[in-house]
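To close the chapter, one final illustration. This time we ask the reader to focus less on the individual chains and more on the assembly as a whole: which components sit near each other, and how the overall shape emerges from the parts.
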Amino acid sequence: MKLTRAFYLNTDVVEVARSLLGKYLYTNMNACITAGVITETEAYNGREDKACHAYGGRLTERTRVMFQQGGTAYVYLCYGIHSLFNVVTNTENNPQAVLIRGVYPVLGLETILKRVKKDRLSGSLTDGPGKLSKALGIHYTHSGLNLLGDQIWIEDKNLIIQDDDVLITSRIGVDYAEEDAALPYRFMVKDTKVQDIKKALL
DNA sequence: CGGCCGATCCACT
DNA sequence: GTGGATCGGCCGA
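The assembled structure is written out below.
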């Protein structure tokens, strides 16, 4: 079932980042449906977090969507090339978001392969934030989309990820964030568990 | 308005 | 394991 507004309105973005592991991220672009199991996330804790684009309440044309209520897509361009997909959380005016850093592809493989210009499935098609956006057809022009709509959404398919199968580390590429760079806000499904998921899908 | 740089990825060596 | 690609956002002037 599709995640509800209540899920996204959670005021603890770190908790949301953890619970998004194992959820299914779907996109429907021009009647091509693709999906992947979320395997890696990072929490960005709003005004208080020096690594967050909305640190100190910074409100610009780009960060504006992070101030909307939870359940909105925040997608922005990184390094001039990559669209990075985030899930906005918390209530309006509390600019928190979860960056989706990795998924395991489960639906629409033909479409995914075409998008990434590969001819066969390898384990590394969707294991980075820029790559998964490309594979699922997410573009920075999709920023502001409602995740309760029918273009990008997330479903709970009762796939449980135990704490034993989760690796928690500091976030990637946020060295500039001083003391906040060390916060344990990155959540990864261990590779052994990803292999289990893969087997279960065969 | 100009310049710097980033929540990255890939082709090379 | 390393450097180049590539461009919008942001900040300072």
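Residues 58, 60-63, 76-81, 140 of chain A lie near DNA strand C (CB under 10 Å from a C1'). Chain A is about 20% helix and 30% strand. With these observations in hand, you are ready for the problems at the end of the chapter.
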